[in-house]
Amino acid sequence: MEKTNREYVLRSPVWQHYDCYKDAKGKKKARCHYCGKSLVGDPSGNGTSSLGRHTQRCLKKQKEKGKQLNLELNPTSVEGQGVLGTWKFDQEFIRAGLVEMIILDEMPFRSVEKEGFKRFMARACPMFKIPSRRSIREDCFRLFLEQKGKLRDYFKIKCGGRVSITTDSWTSCQNFNYMCITAHFVGKDWKLYKKVISFCKITSHKGIDLNDAIADCLEHWGLKNIFTVTVDNASANDTTLLHLRDRLEEWGTNIVGGKYLHMRCIAHIVNLIVSDGLEEMGMSIRRVREAVRWVRSSPSRLAKFKECVEFHNIESKKMLSLDVPTRWNSTYYMLEAAVLFEDAFSSLERKDKEYKPELKAKRYKNQEIGVPQHEDWKNAKVLMKYLKFFHDLTLIASTTSVVTSHRFLREFGRVFYHVEKMMNSKDDDIVRMGMKMKAKVDKYWSEKDCVNFRLNMLVYMAVVFDPRHKMNYPEHIFKKMCGDDRAKVLVKELNDELEKLFEYYQSKMPPPAPSSPSKRRVQVATSSSPRSGSDSDESYDDYDPDDDYGKPQAGHTKSELEKYLVHPREYDDAEEEFDVLKWWKTNAMRYPILSEMAKDLFAVPMSTVPSESVFSTSGRVLDEFRSSLHPKIVEALICSQDWLRSSSSEFVEHLDGEDDDYEDQEDFVNVYNAIMVDEVERCEHVNEHEGTSTSNVGGSDVFGSRSGTNQGGGSNASFISLEPDE
């Protein structure tokens, strides 16, 4: 007997939320009334469980859509103002903010499990489910990989030219050697950028090991077009740069045989110059130092000194600070504050009967020190003026927010001017200091009373690319230092080097499309950057910009370089700071090859301070109580902090596509698992050799829980605790 098909009766109440239909292949489907999504809708073969779960989610979403949103005041860039908007609870959004707070404020992961934080969140946002410290650590590392991927893509797509790097090394309290590498570049938007791209563990401070770490980092980031590497004067760095030059030659990205690759840190050289000079510090400065030391030695003495300050109505926010003999800038800070209180120190002799006898009892090289007299204060003020110049010069060389490479030659000339002025002083102590400084200046920056062309020639070229100076100011400096005859030779050498570099860039660029040159001369102003003094009448600054120094004749112009040099210079308004990057951005169509050279020249950092400053952060992250950081986690936290603090819309572009998400996830799993395996192996090694428990090794988690102690020399504190999350 033939079996008849009968229609299946839909008894479940879930069907009232769906429309049933058949697709093109004849399969039964169910379409949701709320979101329109199609699901499998064959009740006889599939059941209704999946439909029921989808209905619950959909109804919840519809219910939330009908809820009234909370109002919030969103802050704007204008201080004290905001924009009224709406707010809706989002667990993941708040969790991401918590991760950024942990990284930016250098907080231990265990902070999220502290009682105080839990109470605060219970009042601030009771709906937020606080993640465990393990989850926060994973989120921090995931954030690092996401930001790293975006930055790598930025280098590939929007980095305008070559990249200059600064690097320095450091030994942590774990006795691990770390190297920091910072990339400096001018983007296609003609803005100067600085990004920490590596904070990696290295095997030693030897040149070959440093080179391997730098080369691996550059290859990993795809940054093979390196323009310069700024390092300090350590001998190992000379070996590093020799090997790195060979590596760049293998990659085919070396410029003129690597002639311009090695850039010495100016701030480090200035430090050596001034430190040598202060070794000849006279008795006047020692008297001021001992007077400051005496006042700060006890609260009662400081109280009496404050009474003297009030008596003389001395109004100053600065207070006495004692210098550190190994840091010359602290000597400057000490003198800067102390000279303001000269009258108070004089009154202290009458106010406190112990002040003068105790200082007279102190001796230096069998000579009585005593209290500072009026002549001593005069000498201190003279020295402070010289130290102020070197202090401001260090600030200029260390800044990373504005271009500094085109300013070096001017400051270079001012160093010679101040050292010569010290050598011609009437004070014998100042003369001796000047002689010591001159010897150090000659070692690094001069040669037989003339410019030392063993210096990186880029420092001279950068001035030429300043449209206010071009070749005029270099020739002016050469004449001041070496005389007219030698200056002509040096200008010719500089011209030859410029032409070689120009020919290299010309060979790497396609022929420019024809375009009409800009007819408007541009003068752009920006916020001022630190200046090294206000002496406008100094001989090294006093030159006539209209003099015809080294200018090619108009009838012989051929190349783009010659056209630039012969074109009239820009007017230099002393009241406004000239923005050289904006000028080149405006004139990029007129000088397409030179504009690419300008990008690379103006990105060159004059000091290693951008990398050295990272060690201040790492020193807070890794101290004797918080020494259980895995090197990979250290790098993730240090780099992420730098990227978040200097975040820009250009570096937070989201990369679309499932393949990218899968690659990021795969990278995270592989690297993070390797870290955890390494931690387990390290802790097992401790158990075998020291009998420690893995549930309480050091009592610390990454980024600094302070729950552990550092007993027994801190041997246990260098391992990450592996207790499971609650």
TrEMBL record:
Predominant cellular place of this UniProt entry's protein: nucleus
Regions crossing the membrane: none
A single MF term (Gene Ontology): protein dimerization activity
Matches recorded under InterPro entries: hAT-like_transposase_RNase-H, HATC_C_dom, RNaseH-like_sf, Znf_BED, ZnF_BED_domain_contain, Znf_C2H2_sf
GO cellular component: nucleus
Subcellular location: Nucleus
Swiss-Prot/TrEMBL keywords: DNA-binding, Metal-binding, Nucleus, Transcription, Transcription regulation, Zinc, Zinc-finger
Name of the protein this chain belongs to: BED-type domain-containing protein
Record organism: Linum tenue
